[in-house]
Amino acid sequence: MEKIAEQARGRLWFQLYMWQDEALSYQLVQRAKDAGFEALVVTVDAALGNNREYNQRNGFSIPFKVSARSIIDMLRHPRWMVSVLGRYLATSGMPRHENYPARYQHRIAFGSGQAKPVRQSGMTWADIGRLREFWPGKFIVKGILRPEDALLAIEHGADGIVVSNHGGRNLDSSVASIDALPDIVAAVAGRATVLFDSGIRRGSDIAKALALGADSVLVGRATLYGVAAGGQRGAEHALKILRSELRKTMAYLGCTDVSELTPDIFAKTAPVRRETIETLPSQE
């Protein structure tokens, strides 16, 4: 994170996943503080590793394990081999978990049985309150899906919350973040910044979240896909696509400013009643 702080030109937030070893977690937060990060985002909806069956079927894991399938896949993408994997190997070697404590800074490939920090599975609001006291900057709690939890986050010092179900990657039966958003916005009532993520794939998705009361949205996969495909230019291009789609969506809606995106943009629909169906003309 120190290297990023030295080279980045934008504003820096640090996202924290609490570890069971609290001292190690606070060391990480202290490093972020010393490096000049202005906001701490504490993720509370990923206390345990999830069951990613798709990754299991594809043979993907960290540390990455080389298999016949992965070798074939890499050989089929020579440009990626040269520009991504080749660049890493030529400049700094195989990437490591660089923000981890020294004893956990393993390579992300070609290793097995590596020790790694265990996530805190029993996090409480008291833990949130202590982090708030320790962190001097803006404090954000990520992973809120209930109005009651939004209010508790504010009560324990949060300047902002992120309405998020972790992209639907953890609990497959979780409520959609977009469905949870309106009630949370109403409960918060302007007392904290309400950010939104999970499911942002197009500019029209951004418009929907803003219309339902989010102050801003966060994206992850879109820019990660861009980085994987084209490095920094790829990430910039992904953001450019989202901005373009948002502008077009607003133009079609007749909006010239994001402040004009309100719940009124949504069509009012009513359930189709049985008696309505029975009155339809017969096709016989």
TrEMBL record:
Source organism superkingdom: Bacteria
CDD domains given in the database record: alpha_hydroxyacid_oxid_FMN
Residue ranges crossing the lipid bilayer per the database entry: none
Signal peptide boundaries: none
Alphabetized Pfam families for the sequence: FMN_dh
Entry keyword set: Flavoprotein, FMN, Oxidoreductase
Entry keyword annotation includes ATP-binding: no
Cofactor(s) listed in the protein's UniProt record: FMN
InterPro entries in alphabetical order: Aldolase_TIM (IPR013785), Alpha-hydoxy_acid_DH_FMN (IPR012133), FMN-dep_DH (IPR000262), FMN_HAD (IPR037396)
Annotated FMN hydroxy acid dehydrogenase domain residues: 1-271
Xref: Gene3D superfamilies: Aldolase class I
One Gene Ontology molecular-function label: oxidoreductase activity
UniProt similarity note: Belongs to the FMN-dependent alpha-hydroxy acid dehydrogenase family.
Protein name per Swiss-Prot or TrEMBL: Lactate dehydrogenase
Organism the protein comes from: Marinobacter algicola DG893
